[in-house]
Design goal:
By secondary structure, this protein is of the alpha+beta class. It has one domain. Helices cover about 25% and strands about 40% of the residues. It has a seven-stranded antiparallel beta sheet. The termini are far apart.
Length: about 130
């Protein structure tokens, strides 16, 4: 399961009010991801970002969750919504990495990742989401 763990203080409501303007497209790798909506999660003290990811002929709705791991809300997890079945393709992993890098650019510190091979590309898309 692609995921990242981060530490630091972040206001989830601020993130929700200004979600990343991801419009990830890479024709050479045949994938695209577009943010469709963002909403606060009442169950996990976090944020859910809903994307449409297209890879070749495969189209998936992917929900990336950002949720607190502790009551102080200083440790965070970024991963896929377990209630929504998703194939863990390269495009989905780049998307998770991009969300993680967006949070790093927002001030959090990455402590663990399973998407290391996709971080460079994720950082590129996270930086470009800030200008959107």
């Amino acid at each position: 399961m692609p995921h990242l763990k981060l530490e630091g203080l972040v206001d989830v409501k601020e993130l929700w009010e200004a979600p990343p303007h991801f419009n990830i497209r890479d024709g050479s790798k045949e994938y695209a991801a577009v943010l469709k909506e963002a909403f606060l999660s009442k169950f996990s003290r976090g944020l859910v970002l809903r994307f449409v990811v297209v890879e070749g002929r495969l189209t998936q709705v992917v929900q990336v969750e950002i949720h607190a791991l502790n009551d102080e809300e200083t440790e965070w997890m970024v991963g896929l919504d377990k209630g929504l079945p998703v194939l863990r393709t390269a495009g989905v992993k780049v998307l998770v990495a991009a969300v993680g890098e967006w949070l790093v650019l927002s001030g959090l510190v990455k402590t663990f990742t399973t998407v290391a091979p996709f971080e460079k590309e994720g950082l590129f898309h996270a930086r470009h989401s800030l200008v959107g």
